[in-house]
Write a structure and sequence with these properties.
Length: 313
């Protein structure tokens, strides 16, 4: 009975202290707030159970989505490699000092899709036109290298590619005499900004004059004394020129190693006045002469008829 009496007197006195007052306008009329001992215990247990369940759900969801994320990343890498940029490794010294052996360059593959063609002074990567790399040893890449190269996450394992500088394009006339400079459309090129110090423009292999066919390019390495470029393949069809269709793209930046990071701009000598104008004059001289030759018989016949008409009068 004493216990019952204590419990009856003490419980009403403790309730005002244990339970918060309802806030004005809340609409509550004596309902127990969340701070109730029993309620809070239940709430904590429910909260713990709910949070652990959510974490497990999230973890399971991540592992389920991981293959999809990897697949999307691989597809994006493949698209970038196919349409935007691709990494290539420099395998030789033919482009020193512009490019060193082992450099990684990024090649722009986007602009050719919009009809852009190689221009004078650009450094380009191109497929072997045929016969250039027949005597070159090409190591066989393993499966992992092939796959990573295929999706563009590693430099290309395709060893039948070359990298050179475009010296002349379709319609140009290019030549170089021993002891002289490279001449394009009668204009001498100042190559001091990119040719390797100590190299000569063409003393090891003079050439020309050669008329570059339309849709093709004449290429040379910056390390002229150690570059088997267009000069050394003149016995092949088209006199050692390379088809524009074989060009993979323009090398725009040295991306690796980091201490050699640099862009690959077109040297100023290829923007000298008169270079393009000379090409246009040479390119239109032939058709102009043919047109004049074709028009001459028509003019002669017309003059005869006029002369006869005047004589008859």
């Amino acid at each position: 009975m004493a216990v019952g009496a204590r419990s009856g007197h003490e419980e009403p006195e403790e309730r005002p202290e244990r339970y918060a007052r309802p806030s004005p306008g809340s609409g509550s009329s004596g309902g127990l707030p969340p701070q109730d001992d029993g309620g809070s215990g239940d709430g904590e247990q429910a909260g713990d159970g709910g949070s652990s369940g959510t974490g497990a759900s999230k973890q399971r969801s991540f592992w389920k989505e991981l293959p999809l994320l990897v697949g999307i990343a691989l597809v994006l890498a493949l698209l970038i490699k196919t349409f935007l940029v691709q990494a290539f490794s420099i395998p030789s010294d033919s482009m020193m000092n512009t490019l060193q052996r082992g450099d990684r360059v990024l090649v722009d593959k986007l602009t050719p899709w919009f009809g852009s063609e190689p221009e004078r002074g650009e450094v380009v990567v191109f497929h072997d036109p045929g016969g250039w790399l027949d005597d070159t040893y090409t190591p066989e890449p393993n499966v992992a290298q092939r796959f990573l190269s295929f999706i563009g996450l590693m430099p290309s394992s395709e060893q039948k590619d070359l990298i050179k500088r475009v010296i002349a394009v379709g319609g140009d006339t290019v030549s170089c005499k021993k002891g002289g400079k490279v001449m394009v459309n009668g204009k001498a090129l100042d190559e001091t900004s990119y040719i390797r110090p100590g190299s000569t423009p063409c003393d090891d292999k003079p050439f020309g004059p050669i008329r570059v066919p339309e849709g093709r390019i004449w290429v040379m390495g910056d390390n002229r004394d150690n570059s088997l470029d267009s000069r050394y393949h003149q016995e092949l069809p088209y006199n050692g020129t390379v088809s524009n269709e074989d060009v993979v793209g323009r090398a725009v930046v040295v991306a690796w190693p980091f201490d050699r990071w640099s862009t690959l701009p077109v040297p100023d000598t290829f923007d000298q006045p008169g270079l393009n104008a000379a090409a246009l004059i040479e390119g239109t001289a032939g058709p102009g002469a043919l047109a004049a030759a074709g028009a001459l018989p028509i003019v002669l016949v017309r003059r005869r008829r006029l002369t006869r008409g005047r004589t008859g009068r």
